[in-house]
Design brief:
Helices cover 37% and strands 22% of the residues. The longest helix is centred in the last third of the chain and has 19 residues. The protein folds into 3 domains: 154 residues, Alpha-D-Glucose-1,6-Bisphosphate, Chain A, domain 3 (3-Layer(aba) Sandwich), CATH 3.40.120; 216 residues, Alpha-D-Glucose-1,6-Bisphosphate, Chain A, domain 3 (3-Layer(aba) Sandwich); 91 residues, TATA-Binding Protein. A hairpin with an 8-residue loop joins strand 4 and strand 5. With 468 residues, it is α/β, with parallel strands linked by helices. This is Phosphomannomutase/phosphoglucomutase. One of its GO terms (molecular function) is intramolecular phosphotransferase activity. Its cofactor is Mg(2+). InterPro entries: A-D-PHexomutase_a/b/a-I, A-D-PHexomutase_a/b/a-I/II/III, A-D-PHexomutase_a/b/a-II, A-D-PHexomutase_a/b/a-III, A-D-PHexomutase_C, A-D-PHexomutase_C_sf, Alpha-D-phosphohexomutase_SF.
C-alpha cells in the first residue's frame, strides 16, 4: 500500500530509520521497509544478496519489529539469518562474516519509546540517504510490489562467540598485566557483549554495572556523550578501585573511557592512542579523523609517520573515506571508531580492547598514559537554539574580521584564529540548532571564544541560549 510521503520521510532519515514506536514506526511499516530493502539489494545483484542477516537490541518492541522486517524480506524471495540479540557492531560482524546485507533494530541512545533500523550491504558497507535509503523511502511511499517468486527461508545462527573470538584476534592482550575493568552497559547491549568479549580475557576482572538488558533504561539514558550519564560509572570506578571504566551506548557501538581517577577521557585522545597503535604495525598508513576532533589527532598521526585525512562529521562520510583511501583506522569526537580490519565499520568494543592493551603493557595509570595525547583544551559541543542560523554565523564571522588566520567550509564553517585556537559552527540537519565546538591551548582561551561567539549568536537571533 502507498504511504504519505511526509510521514515516511520523517522516519527514513539521512543515515538510518528511526521514530516513535506505534506512532511513526509499526510492524506494517517495517515489513514494507524490509521488502524494499530486499528488492534494493537483490536488484543490484550485489554479492551476498541472496540472504539478509537481522539482529536486534533489548527494546521491548525490537523482536516483533525484526520479525515483521524478516517477513518483508522473505516475501521478496531472499533468505533471512536471524542472530537475535546483538550489538550493532555484532551485526556488522555478521554481515562481514556471512558477506551479506544486514539490518540492525535499534534506536541507539534514544529513549525507550523509539526504535529504528540501521541497514548495511554485504561486508558491513553503509546504506545512507545517497546510497539506498532514498530508493527505499520512495518505494515505501509508492507501495512495495508483492514478491513474484517463491518466498525465502528463515534460519537462526548465534554469532556471539565468533564475534568475541574475532575481536580478540585483532588485539593481543596475552602479555597484559592484570586489570580491573569497570563497565557501565546502561542496561543496553554492552551487557550482552562485554562478558563474551572482555570476560574471556585472562587477567581481566570485569566489574559490571547495569548489565541487565532493559530497554526502559531504568538507571540512566544509554547516552554516554551526556556527562550526566557517566556519573554512575565514575563513582563505580572509584568505589571498586578499577584501573579503567568503559561506558557503552544503547546499541554498544560507541565506547567512552573513564580513567582510574574517575575522570572522562576525551574521544579525541582515544582516537590518537588507537591511531598510534595501528600505525605501529603499518607505518605510513592513512588515518581518518573528523573536523571536530582535536588538532592533536592529525599532529600525532603525522608524527608517527601516518597520513591524516580530515572528514565531515558523520559515519557515512568516514566510511566512504575509509573505503576510498584504504585507511587503517578512523575516529570521531562522538566516540565512533572505525577499523579497516572490521570491514571499515565502527566498533566501540574493538577500540576498548586497544585501550586495554595500551594500559596493560605498562605500569603507568591510564591518566598518565592519556596525558600524552592531550595537548589542547576543548569546549565540547554546545548547541544553540536559533531561528536563523545563517545570520548568526555571518554575525560571528564579521565580529572576527581582521583576526582570522584561515577559514574553510568542509562542514559548516571552521575558523582558525591562530596559536592553536579554532572553532567550528555547523547547523543540525534535523533541528533548529547551531552547534559550536571550540579548541585552544588553555581553558581560559576556550571560555573567551565561547563567550564571544555565544554573545553574537544571542544578539543576532534574540534567543540562542545553549541547550543540552
Amino acid at each position: 500500500m502507498s504511504r504519505p510521503a511526509a510521514a515516511v520521510q520523517r522516519v527514513i532519515k539521512a543515515y538510518d530509520v528511526r521514530g516513535l514506536v506505534g506512532e511513526q514506526i509499526d510492524e506494517d511499516f517495517v515489513r514494507d521497509v524490509g521488502g524494499a530493502f530486499a528488492r534494493l539489494v537483490r536488484d543490484e545483484q550485489t554479492p551476498g544478496a541472496t540472504q539478509v542477516v537481522i539482529g536486534y537490541d533489548m527494546r521491548e518492541s525490537s523482536p516483533s519489529l525484526a520479525a515483521a522486517f524478516a517477513d518483508g524480506v522473505v516475501a521478496q524471495g531472499l533468505d533471512v539469518v536471524r542472530i537475535g540479540l546483538a550489538s550493532t557492531d555484532q551485526l556488522y560482524f555478521a554481515s562481514g562474516l556471512l558477506d551479506c546485507p544486514g539490518a540492525m533494530f535499534t534506536a541507539s541512545h534514544n529513549p525507550a519509546a523509539y526504535n529504528g533500523i540501521k541497514l548495511c550491504r554485504a561486508g558491513a558497507k553503509p546504506v545512507g540517504k545517497d546510497t539506498g535509503l532514498t530508493t527505499i523511502s520512495d518505494e515505501v511511499i509508492g507501495g512495495v510490489p508483492e514478491g513474484a517468486g517463491a518466498p525465502g527461508s528463515i534460519e537462526d545462527r548465534d554469532v556471539l562467540a565468533e564475534y568475541g573470538d574475532f575481536l580478540r584476534s585483532l588485539v593481543d592482550l596475552r602479555a597484559s598485566r592484570p586489570l580491573r575493568v569497570a563497565v557501565d552497559a546502561g542496561n543496553g547491549m554492552g551487557g550482552h557483549t562485554s562478558p563474551a568479549v572482555l570476560g574471556a580475557i585472562s587477567g581481566i576482572t570485569l566489574l559490571p554495572l547495569y548489565f541487565e538488558l532493559d530497554g526502559t533504561f531504568p538507571n540512566h539514558e544509554a547516552n554516554p556523550l551526556d556527562p550526566a550519564n557517566l556519573v554512575d560509572l565514575q563513582k563505580h570506578v572509584l568505589d571498586t578501585g578499577a584501573d579503567i571504566g568503559l561506558a557503552f551506548d544503547g546499541d554498544a557501538d560507541r565506547c567512552f573511557v573513564v580513567d582510574e581517577r574517575g575522570m572522562p577521557v576525551s574521544p579525541s585522545a582515544v582516537t590518537a592512542l588507537v591511531a598510534g597503535r595501528e600505525l605501529g604495525r603499518e607505518i605510513g598508513a592513512t588515518v581518518i579523523h573528523n573536523l571536530i576532533t582535536s588538532r592533536a589527532v592529525p599532529e600525532l598521526i603525522v608524527e608517527r609517520g601516518g597520513t591524516a585525512v580530515r572528514s565531515r562529521v558523520g559515519h557515512s562520510y568516514i566510511k566512504g573515506l575509509m573505503a576510498e583511501t584504504g585507511a587503517i583506522f578512523g575516529g570521531e569526537h562522538s566516540a565512533h571508531y572505525y577499523f579497516r580490519d572490521f570491514w571499515g565499520a565502527d566498533s566501540g568494543m574493538l577500540a576498548a580492547l586497544h585501550v586495554l592493551a595500551a594500559l596493560g603493557e605498562q605500569e603507568r595509570p591510564l591518566s598518565a598514559i592519556m596525558a600524552d595525547y592531550q595537548r589542547y583544551e576543548a569546549s565540547g559541543e554546545i548547541n544553540y537554539t536559533v531561528s536563523d542560523a545563517a545570520a548568526c554565523v555571518d554575525a560571528v564571522l564579521k565580529s572576527y574580521e581582521g583576526h582570522i588566520h584561515s577559514i574553510d567550509h568542509l562542514d559548516g564553517v571552521t575558523v582558525d584564529l591562530g596559536d592553536g585556537r579554532w572553532f567550528n559552527l555547523r547547523t543540525s540537519n534535523t533541528e533548529p540548532l547551531l552547534r559550536l565546538n571550540v579548541e585552544a591551548r588553555t581553558a581560559a582561551e576556550v571560555d573567551d571564544i565561547v563567550d564571544h561567539v555565544g554573545t553574537r549568536i544571542l544578539a543576532t537571533s534574540g534567543s540562542g541560549e545553549p541547550v543540552p
